[in-house]
Design a protein that fits this description.
Oligomer: single chain
Number of strands: 16
CATH superfamily of the largest domain: Glycoside hydrolase/deacetylase
CATH topology of the largest domain: TIM Barrel
Structural class: alpha/beta
CATH class of the largest domain: Alpha Beta
Radius of gyration: 31 Å
Shape: globular
CATH architecture of the largest domain: Alpha-Beta Barrel
Order of helices and strands: HHEHEHHEHHEEHEHEHEHEEEEEEEE
Largest sheet: 6 strands, parallel
Strand content: 15-25%
Helix content: 25-40%
Distance between the termini: 116 Å
Length: about 350
């Protein structure tokens, strides 16, 4: 009996040792037998743990080039009734825009700034006092730009990353701004038709002018375009009532400038000027020299600048309408020499297409 008791005790001890060695369930596992955080913390120092970590990756862009993206932009705001109507129209059409706001209106209507931001739109900089940058000193430029950036950040919690120069007047000041400068592909000239300026026109004339702007945009729009409008005029808001749904129905996705350029894989750099977005492949293919011959102006906007020299900062001699056939006499990388309207100058090869030989 004594021997049997010893055997039983030995067997029990052996069983306990085997159970422990095989990872028997303890208080350091959950109901599925998986280790708890306590079990990791109680591991002896020097014990090897394998922890799978997901590599940090940049978030994917919200959109792709295949979404037919365009950017609707509004200057000089915020306003009151006109701004509210534009925000409503954007929301109703699942669309977004970039608002280039000016300092004195931000001071007057901070709630409108917040409303535009909260609706998912982009708030950008249009300077403190709508002063031409080309006529400003470096110190004045910094003050004009930083004032708006500071104010918008106070209201929305996000600092603007884009700037539009008043009147598009940049001159040699681009580098001083410290921000990417956004120009436009299509100018609606909506400000020329504001109600205060056209008080003598009839309702029929007003409607005709609205439809004329809509037709102008629809005839010239293409993916990657930046459209210029103003948010402080009732006339402009009434244009949007027709234009925004029409653009959406035509298959375009209205997004912010930043989202559009992100989708195209274009990094917006401080001191650089942007008028449209295009694929990297298209940008590279359009910077080569072209052969002399006949070409059609195929710019996304209504006209192409004929410049005095072969660079984007050269003086504009005249504008060549879209669809015009020009004769190129010589070219350098990215630029073609031609004559139009009695003026001889240079046009960007990005916006001309060779006329097929018959």
């Amino acid at each position: 009996m004594k021997k049997n008791a010893i055997r039983i005790t030995a067997l029990v001890i052996a069983a306990l040792l085997i159970f422990s060695a095989c990872g028997g369930k303890t208080n350091n596992t959950d109901n599925n037998g998986e280790p708890t955080s306590e079990s990791f913390s109680e591991m002896p120092q020097g014990t090897s743990q394998t922890v799978t970590e997901t590599e940090t990756q940049a978030p994917a862009p919200k959109y792709t080039v295949a979404d037919n993206l365009i950017a609707l932009t509004f200057d000089d705001g915020p306003g009151t009734d006109s701004s509210a109507k534009i925000l409503r129209l954007l929301a109703e059409n699942d669309s977004y825009a970039t608002f280039f706001m000016v300092g004195y209106n931000i001071d007057e209507h901070p709630d409108a700034v917040k409303a535009a931001f909260d609706n998912g739109n982009e708030i950008a900089n249009h300077t403190k006092g709508h002063k031409y940058l080309s006529k400003s000193t470096p110190a004045e430029i910094h003050e004009q730009v930083n004032y708006v950036n500071d104010k918008v950040e106070q209201i929305t919690g996000k600092r603007p990353t884009l700037l539009r120069a008043p009147g598009g007047n940049i001159g040699n000041s681009a580098a001083e701004t410290g921000m990417p400068l956004i120009q436009w592909s299509i100018d609606t000239n909506d400000w020329r038709h504001k109600d205060k300026q056209s008080s003598s026109r009839t309702e029929e004339q007003r409607n005709s002018e609205i439809n004329g702007i809509v037709d102008h945009v629809m005839s010239n729009v293409s993916p990657g375009c930046i459209i210029l409008m103003h948010e402080i005029y009732d006339f402009s808001a009434d244009v949007c009532e027709i234009l925004i749904p029409k653009l959406v129905q035509a298959g375009y996705k209205l997004v912010t400038v930043s989202d559009m350029f992100e989708a195209y894989g274009i990094e917006l750099k401080a001191g650089e000027v942007y008028r449209y977005a295009e694929s990297k492949a298209a940008a590279q293919s359009n910077t080569v020299k072209v052969e002399p011959g006949s070409y059609t102006v195929t710019t996304a906007s209504s006209s192409l600048n004929l410049r005095a020299d072969s660079n984007s900062d050269a003086a504009v001699l005249t504008e060549v309408p879209k669809g015009t056939v020009i004769t190129v006499t010589e070219s350098v990388e990215g630029w073609a020499k031609t004559t139009y309207g009695g003026q001889t100058g240079w046009v960007s090869t990005k916006y001309i297409t060779a006329v097929p030989v018959q």
